[in-house]
Fold each of these.
Amino acid sequence: MKQQFLIQLATLLLISSSAFGQSVFWYDGDTQIPLWAVEAGSSPLVFRETSALSGPKLRLTGRVIVRFHSQPSAELQARLISYYGLRFERDMGLGAVIWLYSAPNVADSLMLANRLVESGEVAAAFPDWEDVR
């Protein structure tokens, strides 16, 4: 219950801060890539990797791509589901270490991907971005 409340609070802060032009970020490997909201309050959320009005738009899909250090243990798989609230979708077929998960909601996918990277439990995690034309 407390975990879900904290996730909802963090999501609200993410949405409100990006609505005022403050940057949020995602990890590309170890590098933090700043993001700016394009359509504040939209669902799904749309961002740019630059504060300029031009450039590609990225839409959150609600999915998270996770790359493990090695074949994930049953314990780690269970923790991703119970602690982070992720739902396993499929093995991406890339050496059995890259899997696709669904987040509880679209906005949570960015925050959860960042938390997974910061935890050190996975080699990489990032939202499954969709390009917006």
Amino acid sequence: MTKLTLESLEASGFEGIIREEPLAGGMPCFVHHREAGGWCEHTAVMRAYDMNFCEAHGAEIKAGVMAEIYHDAYNVLTDLARREHPDINAVADAYLTIGRDEMTGRCTEAQEAENFALLKAYPLREDLVDTETRHHYEAPDPRNDDPSDVFSRARMHALKLMRLSWQAGEYWTLEGLELGRQGASVQLAYALALDARRTASIA
């Protein structure tokens, strides 16, 4: 029996969620959200959740899949550590700590890769920026929630629902969830770009 490791899970595309393999016939990329500018015109080079993606959008969803899985793993381990286990032994407790520390590092790396991929996949379109996001970055003293946090949570939630649907065999839900994920991803990318521009203007 093959021993599962984080490396082997990544190499397997987390058991088939991500499939980086040549696609025949010049299939189109599935990204088509109106806030991303409509249908992507690039040819697909990989698949995620049985949908086709070009190089840039494929890197973006791959980074998102990894970030969601590692964040969820961290939350599971943290939840286990917070429960009262009067009979837990020191070895089990130590391994929970090791696991959380490992996931903390993986989450940080995944988020950095995710932000980089988002900015590359969805270049800023001023005309398509969410109204509240625009107000947040134009106001001298913004009072609404940070758009990066809002859209990051929405994106992560959509990715988790996609993973759970995939694991449950409810494949018919994936395309609808993917469209919602694209909307959150686009607006997160725009918010990250506007935040970087504002930071650069202050420096």
